[in-house]
Amino acid sequence: MTPPPAVEAAARLGLAVEVRDVGPSSSMEEHEAKLGLAPGQLCKTLVVHRGTDDLVLVVVPGGRSLDWSLLRPVLGVKRASMAQRDEALAGTGYAPGSITPLGAATPEGRSWPVIVDEAASAMDRIALGSGVSGTSVLVDVDDLVAALGATVAAVSRPA
Q1: pLDDT per residue of the chain (159 residues) written in tens, 0 to 9
Q2: Coil, strand, or helix at residue 12?
Q3: Which one-letter DSSP state was computed for residue 48?
Q4: 13 - beta bridge partners?
Q5: Going along the chain, which residue ranges are E strands?
């Protein structure tokens, strides 16, 4: 079986990940329960437009929502928006529901900037998409931030 794309990307970064294939889930909460994780440990990777052809990946724990008033100053912009499903796929190479900052890149191979929400950074380990539906990767948050050169900032609020 071929490893999920996030595993190969993590290996290139020298980042250790644990792969868990639990199959399809109907919600983040169901997927988190199948993974045996505490609430909020499963994180979603949101694809945000900072400008034309300028995306940023934002890692936010489940049970939390992006807070635009907190995110815009971190991005240094007055306006930002969520990428549409087709834009997220084209911009990261991953289908929505499996998007991960690990290996997400422009068609030219340039990595997108990553912001890890402060609520996620407060945990030791989080689960992320792997690039394959139903499969997640668990990773040490501090190692993830260091490997990606990610910015840690408070950009979410409870849902």
Answers
A1: 688 999 999 999 999 999 999 999 999 999 999 999 999 999 999 999 998 889 999 999 999 999 999 999 999 999 999 999 999 999 999 999 999 999 998 777 788 999 999 999 999 999 999 999 999 999 999 999 999 999 999 999 998
A2: helix
A3: E
A4: none
A5: 18-21, 43-51, 54-61, 64-66, 81-82, 114-117, 125-129, 135-140, 151-153, 156-158
Instruction: Give the position of tokens 């900037």.
Output: 113
DSSP letter assigned to residue 40: T
CA-to-CA dists, residue 147 to 11, 27, 53, 67, 140, angstroms? 10, 29, 24, 25, 11
Q: What letter does residue 114 receive in the DSSP assignment?
A: E
Residue type, 5: P
Write phi, then psi, for 92 (nearest 5 degrees): -115, -25
From CA 53, how far away is CA 31, in angstroms rounded? Answer: 32
